[in-house]
Write a structure and sequence with these properties.
The complex is a heterodimer of chains A (283) and B (302).
Chain A (H helix, E strand, L loop, with lengths): L3 H37 L2 H5 L2 E2 L4 E2 L2 H32 L3 H16 L2 H15 L6 H25 L3 H9 L4 H28 L29 H9 L5 H32 L6
Chain B lengths: L20 H33 L10 E2 L4 E2 L2 H31 L3 H15 L3 H19 L8 H25 L3 H9 L4 H30 L2 H6 L20 H8 L8 H30 L5
Antiparallel strand pairs in B: 1-2
Helix pairs in contact in B: 1-10, 2-5, 2-7, 3-5, 4-5, 5-7, 6-7, 7-10, 9-10
């Protein structure tokens, strides 16, 4: 048997070693991404087109494609998330039904992203015959972030004190007016924050869109909804698969850092939105 | 809430409209959002039907050979399990021990730096981890073990460990920090050593939340596609010997990522792939729901 003091010392060193390894991993990951990324990143890298299957040139259309996908996904997800949160917070009377809705929406969060791609391929590409189209990608990303946006909006609505609702009704507002004038403005921060967090996740996703919405080379600005786009994550995938070519690898790091910078901007905006838009209540 | 009969403008209305446009919109959205999951599961079930009810596919064999009519999914399931195990064996102790250090440290600056860099890491897309796997890990593994290719089970397991480490660290740290101070102070005043306070007081109190964190991380590891697909080597065979972690392999997700686009819609091949996806969804849903249950059981959140 080891004495208590020895055990205590051993444990303390185990903690230090674990922290040291974890720190080394954190530094390695962040360091590799920054160092490799900045070797490729430049203003001309961002605005010029990809050439030689991505080994030369930049990421102009990949960047645009990624932005189209998430902007349209945002437009698609907002009405459903808002309506669902509204129903959950203002109209559900039975707690059981409420929990049932929570479960069905929460389960969407547990579905692996590749399954969304498979689902999109079966339903939109094959059964509905849309072919490979960027719109399918937006639809799938919208479904993927629906739980995040809904939950965030619902939480903000739930945080509104009941006295606000009662006062509004007592002043003679109808339920609909109360929702429009009180609930929506008071929960806007939840919607915006949830949406930005969701989009930060959506823009980095590869698996849901790689079969249904994207093409690797020769894609520019889509002329209709039935055309594929090229995106940053699928571009990185294609470049990572030709990793023996140092030029392709360099551009893959450049595209990765650009993608991460967009993710950081979206997360940062979410942080700011929460702070600036949240109503100050003195309750 | 009661009926809104106080509105003066509606006082003349004999039948107060229960269903206005806004309510219909809210109900409609909720109905739609709740049905999506059924729609996804239903689609997968229908499409995997041919594979489930065909007799001669040998689904539970070890041979995957679509040209010869052999659709054994055991290698993929084995690959998934062994990679998850490697990732958990590395990331769980490392993550929990580091989390204890962070939670117990008195340096607010260290805490702040660590927590914000963990948040940054959590936002890194999985394809970027895949790139790190291709550019560094697989090369290190190949050189370290003198292999022809570094795209093997060990590399995929290590990469997954890197990916789930931030999740485990962040959530375990929250769990450990939320154990009331009084517990520690009482234990210390009884003369317990730091090690004993952690082992006998803090960890038992935070157990449910740490288990929840582990399950969530496991769920993420299970569904991870892009990073694994790039470093697994995509070989549809059981490694020989069975626990040779330096052999190439295949997981359910990497199989789906590689072959969905190649197999013809409606073919047996496609149907077997959908079936694999259904198995994957079943596992991840169970893990996610179990994790959720563990988190809500925690007395400190109630």
């Amino acid at each position: 048997m080891l004495s208590r003091t020895v055990k205590n010392t051993l444990f303390a060193s185990a903690l230090r070693i674990a922290l040291f390894i974890s720190l080394a991993i954190l530094i390695f990951l962040i360091g590799a991404i920054l160092l490799e990324g900045f070797k490729a990143l430049s203003p001309s890298f961002i605005v010029s087109e990809a050439r030689d299957f991505g080994a030369a040139g930049g990421i102009r259309y990949q960047l645009l494609g990624s932005l189209i996908l998430i902007i349209v996904a945002a437009v698609l997800v907002v009405p459903f998330a808002l309506g669902t949160a509204l129903y959950r917070s203002e109209y559900v009377t039975s707690e059981k039904l409420g929990r049932c809705i929570d479960l069905t929406i929460f389960s969407l969060n547990g579905i692996p992203s590749i399954t969304y791609g498979l689902f999109g391929l079966i339903v939109f590409v094959n059964i509905l015959g849309m072919g490979v189209s960027w719109l399918i990608g937006s639809i799938l990303l919208a479904i993927m972030i629906l739980p995040t946006v809904t939950v965030s909006t619902h939480q903000a609505m739930r945080a509104i004190p009941n006295i606000y609702r009662e006062s509004a009704l007592a002043l003679g507002l109808t339920r609909a007016e109360m929702v429009r004038k009180v609930i929506l403005p008071q929960s806007l921060h939840g919607l915006v924050t949830g949406l930005l967090i969701g989009l930060a996740r959506a823009i980095g996703e590869t698996a849901p869109i790689m079969f249904v919405a994207t093409a690797f080379s020769g894609v520019t600005w889509p002329q209709s909804i039935y055309e594929p786009v090229s995106t940053l994550p699928t571009h990185i995938l294609a470049l990572a698969q030709q990793a023996t070519n140092p030029d392709a690898l360099r551009n893959a790091w450049g595209a990765s850092l650009s993608l991460i910078i967009i993710v950081m901007i979206l997360s940062g905006l979410a942080f700011i939105a929460r702070r600036k838009l949240e109503p100050q209540r003195s309750m | 809430m009661n009926q809104i009969s106080l509105n003066p403008r509606l006082r003349t209305d004999i039948t107060f409209p229960k269903w206005n446009g806004l309510k219909s919109y809210a109900v409609g959205s909720a109905l739609f959002s709740s049905t999506i999951i059924m729609l996804i599961l239903g689609t997968l079930l229908i499409q995997s039907h041919p594979a489930l009810f065909a007799n001669d596919l040998n689904l539970l064999s070890e041979v995957w050979d679509p040209a010869g009519g052999q659709y054994g999914i055991i290698p993929m399931i084995f690959g998934t399990l062994i990679i998850m195990s490697i990732a958990m064996i590395i990331a769980l102790p490392l993550g929990v021990l580091s989390a204890i250090y962070i939670a117990e440290t008195r340096s607010d600056r260290l805490k702040h730096i660590l927590k914000s860099s963990l948040e940054v890491l959590a936002g890194i897309p999985s394809i970027v981890y895949g790139l790190i796997g291709v550019a560094y890990l697989s090369i290190w593994v190949a050189e370290g073990f003198e292999l022809q290719t570094g795209r093997v089970i060990l590399t995929a397991g290590l990469l997954l460990a890197l990916m789930i480490l931030p999740t485990i660290m962040t959530l375990s740290e929250d769990a450990i920090s939320s154990v009331p101070r009084a517990y520690r102070e009482n234990a210390a005043s009884l003369g317990l050593y730091h090690y004993e306070i952690i082992k006998d007081i803090v960890l038992p109190a935070a157990k449910a939340d740490i288990a929840g964190a582990a399950l969530l991380a496991l769920g993420r590891a299970l569904g991870e596609t892009m990073a694994v697909m790039l470093v697994i080597g995509s070989l549809d065979r059981l490694p020989s010997p069975l626990f040779n972690v330096l052999a190439s392999s295949q997981t359910i997700t990497s199989k789906l990522g590689r072959e969905i686009a190649e197999s013809a819609f409606g073919s047996t091949h496609f149907s077997v792939l959908v079936l694999m996806s259904l198995i994957l969804v079943a596992f991840t849903l169970i893990l996610t729901i179990a994790a959720q249950k563990l988190f809500t059981k925690d007395p400190h959140n109630a």
